[in-house]
Fold this protein.
Amino acid sequence: MDQGMKMLLTGFDLLLALTLLWLAWQLLRSTDIFKAIIFFICFGLLMSLAWVRMHAPDVALAEAAIGTGLTGPLFLAALRRIERKAGKNMMSEPAGNGEETGSRWKARNREMSPLLWTVTALTCCLAGLLIWTVLIIPRPLPGLADQVAGSLAESGVNNPVTAVLLNFRGYDTLLEVMVLLLGAITVWSITHAPFPPRVPDTSPVQKAAVRLLLPLICLIGGYLVWQGAYQTGGAFQGGAVLSAALVLLLISDFLWLPGMRSLPLRLGLTLGPLVFVLLAGFGILVEKTLLRLPVEYAGPLLLFLEAACGLSIGLTLAAFFAGGRPASDLRETPYSGEAKGKGPAES
Amino acid sequence: MTTILYSVTGLLLFVFGLFALIVCPHPLRKILGGNVMSAGIFLFLVAASYRADTGEIDAVPQAMVLTGIVVSVCITAVALVLSTRLQQAADQGARRRRKRRREEDAGE
Amino acid sequence: MTIPEIIGLACIAAGIPFFLSGTIGMLRFPDIFTRLHALTKADNVGLGFLIIGLCLQTDDWFIVIKLVLIWVLVLTASSASCHLVARRALQKGIRPWTRE
């Protein structure tokens, strides 16, 4: 029975790996960009399965929520904006007609020029080198699991991944939260939010479904953030679920980002990084070491930190989807003359 | 066996993504290739720490991959907004060139 | 293997043909409306059988509640998105396939 189970699992792993490779190949060689994005979404979902097989449920949750659930709509929104500016409609040609959309990058039947042959040969050499490196690694590899298990009691949480993420390697997470903020600032400084002034016909079914799902999504997001202390979950997964709620609001015409006031949004975006920096300063003052938390208060402090970061992450990811700053910022920039020229009506 | 299978898959995904990043002209497809590259690296990282016999998890690579997923979505978002802006600027330039050409033809 | 576990496995095995037929339908049916029709069978009934089978294999009530919640949420999301896809297809002017 055990041997049969092992063979079944190996067969499943083989099938999963081949499907992942085939999906990646298809998404890079299909001529229609829309198809490529859909393949990418399926690829992300199958990656979540691979994470579950690797005994990494936190990573599986994060990949399904952030890596697929948010990146897919980001790509689709960007495709729509590029298409609209190029004057073409995404579904105007019937599927499989093969013309790459976007006005400047027409698909050609690409002949294999010598340069392309060189690139292909070099990439194959790189692949061979990397695979040979994998095969000669001595196994089993030493890991840090023992050290983490030894110090888990002093970290304030029971989940080892959360302990590593927020306590033992808190410095990495601090920088990561700063990277999120930096991404939001960059996106805001490039353009204003390009959503159309009025989405003309949102279906009543869509509005009803969003009204039904929204409280539940917020509840599940909060539950995931709280659950991160002792089970699979955490600030990133909960924040991603929260961002899904905001994205649903944006596309169902309940919330129109250009009409939003930007001050509450800015406060929400900076709350997580601010709390993290305050905690780092608190660590310096009390324990004389950056980001070292006192053991008695580690649990509640980490929960507070996770809540603040979850909120910020949700707002930041939704701001990525909106793709620009709110319209109430237009007054304050020195470029407001140029920005008014391409107001919401034209985008 | 599982470890080697998933590590090799991850590295092949990395190579696919690298090839797409270099070769494809459409910016959206380049960004898709970049995402596939990072997915491959994460798979390799977690597969390298997978213990098939005991099944215990090594938390440090998993936390690194979690951080990596969030950072890669940041990069994707900024790259997408940049490519949208690039398309907009290119269209404006093309429109201005067409207008100038039309004015020249009308003036002749 | 107790009786609930055997019934659970049977339910999971009963859900597999629905997923299979949904996939074959999506690949082989002629137009978008018939494909949506095939896909929602996999979501509703196939997932329902799977959830029943999984509920019978656990003895924690909280997990049963979570599984049923998952099924209800998937039902809501899939029916809403099926409606939206069909609505958009009609707006694009795609007419249902008729046997010519």
